[in-house]
Write a structure and sequence with these properties.
Blueprint (H helix, E strand, L loop, with lengths): L1 H36 L6 H22 L7 H5 L3 H33 L12 H27 L15 E2 L7 E2 L1
Antiparallel strand pairs: 1-2
Helix pairs in contact: 1-2, 2-5, 4-5
Length: about 180
């Protein structure tokens, strides 16, 4: 299972890199054409916007998976282990609830977007809602998997305040040290 997840992460990174390259080419090419030749690529803005939305949500999914979202572990690091674990369970439940609301809203927007078309390329506007819907499901599954690890006492569970799983921690003096 771990290999499958790592392969999916790698594919997602490559997709994101490709989207970023296409976005840069479209926007830069459109600027050059507009100011240099009084012309332009009509669909460039629409495609770049769609790719940017997908890029943001895919990046958020990867950041969640790698525990790279901004967090305030300073207070939790000073709590006893049992309280830290309880805080992690509560925060995971709150995140799952928020993602459930997001998934519901994205689903409704996806259904509405099936009937609405984009201005230039005439693709279904559901493509925008799908950018939130599918990554939100992946984020919810990631959080549920970690919540299961926390509740079952798995040593590989990520609990904020327990230190960085990548081996970098901030000791009492505040400086970052490698293990």
């Amino acid at each position: 299972m771990k290999r499958v997840v790592e392969a999916l992460e790698m594919v997602t990174e490559w997709i994101m890199a490709l989207m970023l390259a296409v976005m840069v080419a479209l926007v830069f090419g459109n600027v050059v054409l507009r100011y240099g030749f009084n012309s332009g690529i009509v669909a460039a803005e629409e495609l770049a916007r769609l790719m940017f939305v997908w890029l943001v949500f895919l990046g958020a999914t990867l950041a969640l998976r790698r525990h790279q979202h901004l967090g305030l572990d300073i207070l939790q690091a000073r709590l006893p282990a049992r309280v830290r674990r309880a805080c992690a369970v509560i925060s995971h439940l709150l995140m799952i609830y928020a993602l459930w609301l997001f998934i519901q809203g994205s689903w409704f927007q996806l259904l509405i977007g099936m009937e609405t078309r984009s201005t230039v390329l005439s693709f279904p506007m559901a493509f925008y809602a799908a950018a939130g819907f599918f990554p939100a499901i992946a984020m919810a599954l990631t959080i549920l998997a970690n919540l299961w690890k926390i509740l079952s006492g798995d040593a590989t569970a990520h609990i904020p305040g327990n230190g960085d799983p990548h081996g970098v921690t901030a000791p009492q003096g505040g400086a970052i040290a490698e293990h």
